[in-house]
Amino acid sequence: MLRTRLSICRKKVSYRTEADALAIVFASGLPLRPYRCDRCLQFHLTSRRKGKRVPRMASVVTG
Ligand SMILES: [Zn+2]
Fold first, then answer.
1. Which residues constitute the domain of residue 39?
2. How far is the CA of 37 from the centre of ligand 1 (A)?
3. Core-most of 18, 22, 26, 48, by most CB within 10 Å?
4. Is 35 among the domain residues?
5. What pairing do the DSSP bridges indicate for beta strands 43-47 and 32-36?
């Protein structure tokens, strides 16, 4: 299970259900993934990439 620091939890937006979180992901079009937080037991969104640094240029959305 993904451990979440309390400080991170409090900074993040939380969603009551995974469906709520997914709705935000689809609406944003960003590569985000909902996960259950073991601090607040609600869902937060996290970036899908695994600790891989992405150069600034790559984060520019085109089209
Ligand atoms: Zn949380």
1. 9-48
2. 5
3. 22
4. yes
5. antiparallel
